[in-house]
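Narrative summary of target 7.
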Amino acid sequence: ESLLDDHLIDVQDNTSNSDKGDQSPTSLYPVKFLNSLLEATTIYGVTFNGKSFKNNAEDQKSAEILSRYVTTWGSNFFAHVRGVLLQHALESDHQEYKQEEEDDERFASISSELMKLVTSVRDIASSLALPEVGLDMEVASGLVEEAVGITESLVRRRVKRKFRLLRVRVIEDCISPFISSVMEDATMANKETIIRTAQLANSALSDGMQFADDTIQSILGNGVNEKAPGATLDLEMLKLAVSKNARKFAFWLAASLEAISGCDMADDHVLLDVKRMLKPDDEGDHELDKLVIEAASVLTSDKSDDEEIEADRKEHKLVNSLREHIEDFASDAASDVLNIALVEMCRLAERNVSNNMNQSMVSNIPKSGYRTDKQEQINVDVDAMISIRFKIAASRSLSIYASAKGHEASSTACYDIFESCSLKSEFFPHGPSDSALKVLEIAKGVCINCSAVFGGNEMASSLPDFNDDYRQDMSMNGASRLASGNHGAMKGLSLDVARMFTEKVEIYPHPLDIAIFTRDHVISFMMRVAFRAWLEQIRQCTFAPFAYRQMQVDVEFLKYLLPHYVNEDSADTLHSVLTDLLLNVGERCTDPECVGISEFHDEAMGKVLSPLSIALNYLNEEESAGRHGE
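Modeled conformation, tokenized:
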């Protein structure tokens, strides 16, 4: 026991002298204690467990005494060593990441001592297990396991800390400068800005992966860094620790990117498992849902460790501060550009992060004494969960963007709805309202932005020929339209029947859905949100006859131009939403006699007009004036 006390005093004196610049080498474990333990145990074993001693009860008792002696003092020894090594590790933990080189030197000496410790304990255990000494093999192997356990725990702690510092570095030196650059540069959300920002996102991600490579190299070494733990410690142990923490880093990065885009930062304590209603034969969808839930709920830290919880709080605070900075200071254009860029960053990470970390580990494993000419096979994403997690992050970020643009469009459409719904006039509407025009204006911007990132055409199809469509619609007015069955207003039961045959449309995707990264998907989602929000606002109003006719024109105008923005299937879905919207307006019209009437006799023009012909006439006039109605 005095040897342990003397060693502790020597270590403390050495630490004090090293702070003053006076280096005096002192082993981090008491070698004299091990030698004394070996000597005492050997003498006892040879004396009482020799060959002359028969295998009787007294022999068994002496063996138990020997095992108890070694176990007791072995425990005291390892408790002492664990305390000394932990103290050194805690001193390293207080270093800032900018002093990592000095910290690596400190841990290099610790890792060297760790390997000496394991080697010494193995030698002693082998000696004690000899027949001449007679120590129980389980006790001897327990000593070795204890030494290896101390080494593994400190290695895991060190690797974990390295990757924690990596997280902070990525936030402060990659993501934060990227966000600041976008906020300064993106004054307009046009195609050139989107492309330039996507390139910046690629560069920021590449910088982050370079930091990850530097971190892995500082741990494994590859013979370049002689002070890396990989130069002295067991490489299989290090590989396992690095793979585990690299995987956690990837999941953390995905969660952070989606949080910056506007999602809530994931709380690993609580997981809301939302299952969709699927038919029993939808086995493929069930399996996909399970996979998405599993990927989204992977823990990025050990929640049983108080230090991990505290580190999580600090990282969450950094991420949340970035999001708050965007909300407080970013312009609308910068926010749009940034959200799209974060989607693209997540998609790039889905393809590159795991591959880059695999390659970094392979290239940094020391070759000497471990690897042959055969290429080392390492895969931190063997179950593809990292790729799925980044795809989920990209999908959620894209949904945030599309939803935000949909709410922007609906806010524009509903800006003066309480005034416009009460407008009265003896004339018919001249064309679509500003609300409908602004919805399509926002949709056009989204089309351009998504086309710049996801590729493809900016629009789903070219603009139709307004003149031909106008003439065709006018030819159907009057007698020919009456023959088709348009006989009067829709009232009461007719409106209810019409609603029964309206297609039920899912506005927001299920949380487990993976988005399709195309212009059409985003525009369809954005318009569903806009039209449904518009509909909800309509339910709070009552409409004068002129306002009802204006809504008829707006709906026909939007239906007519939808194929220019989305494909046929999406257009049909949006038609259903617009039809439901107009039915709700009809229910709230103060003059039931005009509800459902799709022909207006304009006495001044001497024509029978329809809502569509009014919209087409407006488009013709805009085109003749050199302004396109898109």
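The mean pLDDT is 78.
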